[in-house]
């Protein structure tokens, strides 16, 4: 079967985020960018399914500026076979992204689509669910285990109270949670090989999708800072302060 | 225009996150309907009818909704939701699972995880794991919104007397089947709703040592959490994780024990009212957000704390 994996280029998770002085957005100039961690887990899961012989082909797609070809090449170096770049300098919202992905799903006809549960920049946690509804495929979100069995996939999901297991009829959508797997590091030979793997470039217009969003960002601010309090010398002093000063005991 | 709030519940009781979401909904408008969809959940519908400020409860009771499967629940909400100005649900794993489907099926964009309501169409939400706060305006005809419930106080659970209307529509996808669940059974309060939370980190050294936290938690009626480091090290299961990638908590009192205070952990607890940190490394970043810091060996401090609370 064929697996489609959607990936996003985001600020590297180790970078300290700073808000621009004019409060228009977060400052992304000269900041290290990377593959969104949840997307990296999605690529790893697809590649493992290929290594187990469950999947024959892993196609990776990214939507964004020219530079996101770097992240597609990273995914190819991890073991994906082929890339699709939908090029746009706009910042499409999840609704538009889901519509673009839905067009690609119709073209590529994958049996499984794997996405990260959320990107670490906008933190929306929407795209996989939206794609599932648009493409009328069942969804297994926040997956910590994925088992393909014939025309079904069993997905164990991380939910608030513990774990929930669902059985989905393929084709299906899976979104990854952190503990699904630990992504490998790309080896140098694989990084070199990735440069020669095929990468198609399309535009949202080619796919007939409008990017205008009805959600506008009015302002971006740093969060209220919490200032450090005091150090107490002993457990007795701590309990006394909690009782008499903070009044929480 | 009216607002539809989709209740979070376990078919037996209304999750407190729903009462907090109602506070957010009241800031958007005043005619508030609550949808209780589940299986044998009449008690929940009656409970929702008593909540302050609710004018009507829609009660959909069918096996198809018993496990809150996103496919079925979203189809139901879309069928009921077209006449509303806002469709609102708590940003729990259930809300996060079905609400984007509601949005896309109505062909509108969604606003996720709001922490403040500025007006009926303008909201604040954390981005970049809470390292920035965005104010966003939503111009969609129907606003589909999930609410970070810890950012809002609960409405009164008693006092209302809304009518309960039965909804007979059944949407049941053939493509998804519930197989099972492992729900951590615990006598302790739920992490997200507890008044006091005590969490352990890598400094606990192993899972067995969490018994030291349990003894203190018993004295305080506290829920027990953990840092991602403690979960990744296999000390405790991942549903105990507090942080950006785990649960977001904001209790009256948060006690961090043996937790260094990585950004990812702070994102999950820094809105707690009072923060206590116990760590033997006085340079640990957790002290920069703690109201009360105790530089001590947790293996001595915890038994002492337990005794002091007796």
From TrEMBL, chain A:
Entry keywords, A to Z: Electron transport, Transport
GO MF terms, alphabetically ordered: electron transfer activity
Pfam family membership, one: ETF
Entry coiled-coil feature ranges: none
CDD domains for this protein: ETF_beta
Cofactors demanded by this protein: AMP
Family membership noted in the UniProt record: Belongs to the ETF beta-subunit/FixA family.
UniProt protein name: Electron transfer flavoprotein subunit beta
Organism of origin: Aliidiomarina haloalkalitolerans
TrEMBL record, chain B:
SUPFAM superfamilies: Adenine nucleotide alpha hydrolases-like, DHS-like NAD/FAD-binding domain
A single GO BP: fatty acid beta-oxidation using acyl-CoA dehydrogenase
Binding site for FAD: 202, 227-228, 241-245, 258-265, 279
Protein name per the record: Electron transfer flavoprotein subunit alpha
Signal peptide: none
Species for this entry: Aliidiomarina haloalkalitolerans
Cofactor section: FAD
Record keywords, A-Z: Electron transport, FAD, Flavoprotein, Transport
Sequence ranges assigned to domain Electron transfer flavoprotein alpha/beta-subunit N-terminal in this UniProt record: 3-182
Pfam hit, one: ETF
UniProt cofactor note: Binds 1 FAD per dimer.
PROSITE patterns in UniProt: ETF_ALPHA
Function: The electron transfer flavoprotein serves as a specific electron acceptor for other dehydrogenases. It transfers the electrons to the main respiratory chain via ETF-ubiquinone oxidoreductase (ETF dehydrogenase).
Classification lineage: Bacteria, Pseudomonadati, Pseudomonadota, Gammaproteobacteria, Alteromonadales
Family membership noted in the UniProt record: Belongs to the ETF alpha-subunit/FixB family.
Tree of life domain: Bacteria
Listed PANTHER family: ELECTRON TRANSFER FLAVOPROTEIN ALPHA (PTHR43153), ELECTRON TRANSFER FLAVOPROTEIN SUBUNIT ALPHA, MITOCHONDRIAL (PTHR43153:SF1)
Example GO molecular function: flavin adenine dinucleotide binding
InterPro entries recorded: DHS-like_NAD/FAD-binding_dom (IPR029035), ETF_a/b_N (IPR014730), ETF_a/FixB (IPR001308), ETF_alpha_N (IPR033947), ETF_asu_C (IPR014731), ETF_asu_C_CS (IPR018206), Rossmann-like_a/b/a_fold (IPR014729)
Complex and partners: Heterodimer of an alpha and a beta subunit.
């Amino acid at each position: 079967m064929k697996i489609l994996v959607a990936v996003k280029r985001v600020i590297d998770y180790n970078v300290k985020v700073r808000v621009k002085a004019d409060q228009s957005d977060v400052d992304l100039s000269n900041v290290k960018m990377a593959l969104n961690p949840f997307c990296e887990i999605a690529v790893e899961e697809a590649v493992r399914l290929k290594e187990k012989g469950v999947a024959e082909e892993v196609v990776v797609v990214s939507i964004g500026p020219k530079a996101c070809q770097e992240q597609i090449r990273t995914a190819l170096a991890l073991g994906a076979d082929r890339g699709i770049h939908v090029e746009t300098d706009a910042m499409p919202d999840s609704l538009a992204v889901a519509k673009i992905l839905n067009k690609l799903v119709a073209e590529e006809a994958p049996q499984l689509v794997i996405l990260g549960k959320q990107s670490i920049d906008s933190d929306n946690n929407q795209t996989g669910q939206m794609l599932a509804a648009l493409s009328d495929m069942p969804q297994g979100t926040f997956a910590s285990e994925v088992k393909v069995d014939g025309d079904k996939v069993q997905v164990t999901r991380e939910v608030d109270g513990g774990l929930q297991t669902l059985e989905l009829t393929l084709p299906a959508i899976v979104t990854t949670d952190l503990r699904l797997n630990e992504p490998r590091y790309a080896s140098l030979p694989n990084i070199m090989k990735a440069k020669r793997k095929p990468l198609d470039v399309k535009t949202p217009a080619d796919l007939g999708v409008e990017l205008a969003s009805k959600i506008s960002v009015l302002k971006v601010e740093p969060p209220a800072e919490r200032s450090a309090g005091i150090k107490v010398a002993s457990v007795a002093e701590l309990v006394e302060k909690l009782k008499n000063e903070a009044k929480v005991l | 225009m009216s607002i539809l709030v989709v209740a979070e519940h376990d078919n037996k009781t209304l999750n407190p996150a729903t009462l907090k979401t109602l506070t957010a909904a009241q800031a958007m408008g005043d005619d508030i309907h609550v949808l209780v969809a589940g299986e044998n959940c009449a008690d929940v519908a009656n409970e929702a009818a008593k909540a302050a400020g609710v004018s009507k409860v829609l009660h959909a009771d069918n096996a198809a909704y018993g496990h809150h499967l996103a496919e079925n629940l979203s189809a139901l909400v879309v069928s009921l939701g077209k006449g509303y100005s806002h469709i609102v649900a708590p940003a729990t794993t259930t809300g996060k699972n079905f609400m984007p489907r509601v949005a896309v099926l109505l062909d509108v964009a969604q606003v996720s995880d709001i922490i403040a309501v500025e007006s009926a169409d303008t909201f604040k939400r954390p981005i970049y794991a809470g390292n920035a706060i965005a104010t966003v305006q939503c111009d969609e005809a129907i606003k589909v919104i999930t609410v970070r419930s810890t950012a809002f106080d609960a409405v009164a659970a008693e006092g209302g007397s809304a009518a309960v209307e039965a909804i007979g529509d059944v949407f049941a996808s053939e493509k998804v089947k519930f197989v099972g669940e492992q729900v951590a059974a615990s006598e302790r309060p739920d992490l997200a709703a507890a008044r006091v939370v005590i969490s352990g980190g890598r400094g606990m050294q192993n899972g067995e040592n969490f018994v030291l936290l349990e003894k203190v938690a018993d004295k305080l009626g506290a829920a027990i959490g953990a840092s991602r480091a403690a979960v990744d090290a296999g000390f405790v299961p991942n549903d105990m994780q507090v942080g950006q990638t785990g649960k977001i908590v904001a209790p009256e009192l948060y006690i961090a024990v043996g937790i260094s205070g990585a950004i990812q952990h702070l994102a999950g607890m820094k809105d707690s009212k009072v923060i206590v940190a116990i760590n033997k490394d006085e340079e640990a970043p957790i002290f920069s957000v703690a109201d009360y810091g105790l530089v001590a060996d947790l293996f001595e401090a915890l038994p002492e704390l337990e005794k002091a609370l007796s």
